[in-house]
């Protein structure tokens, strides 16, 4: 089998990348999706708030997905469901498998990695105690409740204040469960402010910052958990333990990009994002292999996923239509200072982004009264005030085509978070 | 009437049952939980010890050595994962070198082959990532690793296929000796009459022994916390790395597993609660600290799960294997802690022979010692795999992403002898849910398959037997659980 572009993953990133690649002129595109429908994790996100940037209206997850699925269908883009990619090779052979075709060796001119992410599991958190039924990652619970109509439990404690955990606090409450509290190890929430207000505050669900689960009781099914306060080194403080009877513990303690395929094929990874290192074209260290969505870095808003994936699709199409331009590359690393932990893309060759480029990043801790400045060759080209910056909120700077054009031949790009 | 009733379907009960089916006998294995391999046998290091630890002349030494030698052939016969990866006892302090020397001498006396004391240079060749404190090691190429689920389930399945009955979810309540030289085993599922009883009840073996004998024994539950590292840490260490043993056991080991994970642990804490399989923060911290003593750069951040197991520690730290003197027809397999897993084939073989002799059992001409495990399509060539998928498309549908387990394997696990009935039972047989996401993605799918194949309502699907139901009902239920 041969395709110009193979997209691994039919979630929001994969769909947007495929649509954009098609619109850029490539016709021979295949989307491989491991689940039984397109749309990815959006299908279980039945709350609204999606699409404000992309469609200028508030949609639910399935509605947002449906718009992109429709675009894929309108364009006649091929996709295979229930299809698992087993292996990617450096020369862009995609080994995939499903019931109908068995194991397929698909040769691609370009590959777009859009596998999404997974939730950090209980084991990775080293939560001591028993290992009974009733401990779910928030996303698994979300799938059970929203897609399959099952209640994981009735009395719920949530560890971690990631967005899915916050959303599920509200969801479980609306389904008649009692959500006793959300405990967060860090002194700040990992989720969006709007979710804390709309999902916890509006339902009087307490959020205990600097708290964690130090014991799980119940041999068969969860009977309760012990919560304790932690110190600055995140170690539980003796004497602060409090026992909460419950039948369910939901975990929302971080998302990890799924990049086993990328790693195995030798793609250079960023240890901060756990996603591939990409340039302005969203191309990884392996020529012709692009990355997008939460496999690249974990996003807060699907709108930005779609936008970035669109660029990845356009550049993948360029790679197919115009060929590899690696020999003409002269990349400038994006330097960071003042608390930004990473930047995506992490390097830029201005000549490949004549219309400009958006660089997204996160800070490592909550910071107040800052400004985000961009310096090209030491010259400040933009400055934006930020009253509050938090790790749970993705930040961005835009280098417009005009700014880049005015600074031809630059040697350095610096994003500096500075005190006001 | 049964010839033999075995209490406990752990690795020892299953092994005794399997080797007993070589004889013509009515055998029944009574297990209180919902699956075989559900106690100590499922939560241990999975090591086939070379045999240098146990005191010379002890039963531990005898059965360990014999079990170690039986394991390769048995793995072939019963198709379970086993590898002789070799083990190293690492000495981290020059002052301890005499202890290493003594361990070596004991091993030689026990009959361990190819045992060798190696200097630091050779140690670093064998194990390049060993920490800077290491000064020498005892190198035992005959040490191995086995999948403890694979071994136990293979033994049990083969026993069942050769006619042994397994009564799961069945609790033994009392044992009484009748005037006609039979035992009546009272369970919560009724009474069983048998000529002989084998006590393979793990941490509860003292409970049953003391029920029938005036010569009391005591078995402590010695808890060990473990951590398991993701496959991305595979290859960081190659052999099973021990530190010098202390009085509570063999200490914290680091070992590759047969599925590419790295196991780290255990601690050793005696507890009163025979159900106390909870990990503790101190225990896990202790495991981490001690592991780093030997391998300072061990990537502990790659931990995907932690768990605790209970060793059945008898006060004399020795296997108790034999007929109980004041309880005619009652056979003890008690105090089976490390090297119990390594010893299990030898214990099964010898115990079955002792029982056959006493009961005058005849050879079973229909015994089939070979068993095929669940087919792993990953081991097939692409052509073979495609032929398989063509004949059974379920092998083309991946259910567990992390471990690439297909629906075909899960169906096999459910429908073969002693088939899986719960999420954990599927996990132990197929590895679905054993990977880095720890069943986050596949658990709803596996629940669905279990529900469909067993014809059981989703609300009754459990993690590990009754009481561990995974869901509490439908979203549209009211608070009382009744459908509106």
Name its key features.
heterodimer, A: 420 residues, alpha/beta, FAD/NAD(P)-binding domain, Immunoglobulin-like, seven-stranded mixed sheet, five-stranded parallel sheet, globular, B: alpha+beta, D-Amino Acid Oxidase, Chain A, domain 2, Arc Repressor Mutant, subunit A, eight-stranded mixed sheet, five-stranded antiparallel sheet
Q: Rounded to an integer, what's the Rg of chain A over CA atoms? A: 22 Å
Cα-atom radius of gyration of chain B: 23 Å
Secondary-structure-derived class of chain B: alpha+beta
Structural class of chain A: alpha/beta
- Total helix count of chain A? 9
Largest sheet of chain B: 8 strands, mixed
Helix content of chain B: 25-40%
Rough outline of chain B: globular
Measured between the Cα atoms of the first and last residue of chain A, the distance is: 57 Å
> So what's the overall shape of chain A?
globular
Question: Would you count the extended β strands of chain B for me?
Answer: 23
Task: Give the strand content of chain B.
Answer: 15-25%
Count of DSSP E strands of chain A?
30
> What CATH first level of one domain in chain B would be assigned?
Alpha Beta
Name given to the CATH homologous superfamily of the largest domain in chain A: FAD/NAD(P)-binding domain
User: How far is the N terminus from the C terminus of chain B?
Assistant: 50 Å
Helix amount of chain A, in percent?
Answer: 10-25%
